[in-house]
Amino acid sequence: MAGGTAELSEHGELRGEGERTMDGFIELDRVEKVFDVRRRAGLLRRERHQVRAVDGISFSVPRGEMVGYIGPNGAGKSTTIKMLTGILTPSGGRLRVAGVDPSRDRTRLARRIGVVFGQRTTLWWDLPLRDSYGLVRRMYRIPDARYRANLERCVELLDLGKLLEVPVRQLSLGQRMRGDIAAALLHDPDVLYLDEPTIGLDVISKAKVREFLREVNATQGTTVLLTTHDLTDIEQLCRRVMVIDHGRLVHDGDLEGLHAVGESERTLVIDLERELPPVTGIPGVRVVRTEGPRQWLAFAATRSAAPLVAAVAERYPLVDLSVREPDIEDVIARMYAEPKPYAVPHDERTS
């Protein structure tokens, strides 16, 4: 390359001068986003207030990693995603994705990222899926052979074969979500941002989406940043989880560490053959509710449910059971219930 301004990355890619100082494929350094909001202060008067949606966040994501980015509603998750895609410009700090400043070079970056917002579709409402995908091919100028191969892979893994001729407006939420994920991956993006990709999906649709994302990450090396309220998504897909609350990063580590810090609990719901006194004699378990033959048993989220199920089945006439994961709002509420030291940030750990 002319001028000698390019070098090989650790992944064997040729990269430009702008990527040399990057420690991660996605890099945020003290990033802030402040919104000016006008509020009524009287009959005819409004006052301007500042809302700090993201407050000095720093983290790094290596290429090929799948990371959960979670927090309660209004924590700053979607604002972060919008800054990473270039939709919003940071109020302060430094942000790079693949060596590119998203807000300054949004068009260049668009060819390297895919985005799925769970409550908004990127598909054309009145067109069949196949036609929507054809438009995506033209927008990204995807070569025919590559487009056909990617579409075939997405259709097979996401079970879209019978839906290609169906207008988007006639698809169920789960079908549309699978269609949106396929559209976001047709151009082989380096980074995939998923904002609530399983919201409102049934169990079967969730399983298909999760399996597909695992496949894409493993075979294509796609970097994935996943925001969700469903901790099962995180457990099944991500080794690393970051928690944002009130615009600040409060945890960066594995999910077990998050549960330990938040002292969160899972719930085993059991149905017995008949109404019996509350379950007793099982260490680390407490009955939080009973209703006829049904009982709700709370236990630490860091524990496996298997020994508990075995102990209950051995001592009681068990008919049915289910395990409910802790809600992320509850986890974070417990984190703030009393002062506790947070886990060491991911990029500050030593090996």
Automatic annotation (TrEMBL):
Membrane topology of this protein: Peripheral membrane protein
GO biological process, one term: response to antibiotic
Matching InterPro entries: AAA+_ATPase (IPR003593), ABC_transporter-like_ATP-bd (IPR003439), ABC_transporter_ATP-binding (IPR050763), P-loop_NTPase (IPR027417)
GO cellular component: plasma membrane
Main location: membrane
Domain ABC transporter, first and last residues per copy: 26-271
Protein name, per record: ATP-binding cassette domain-containing protein
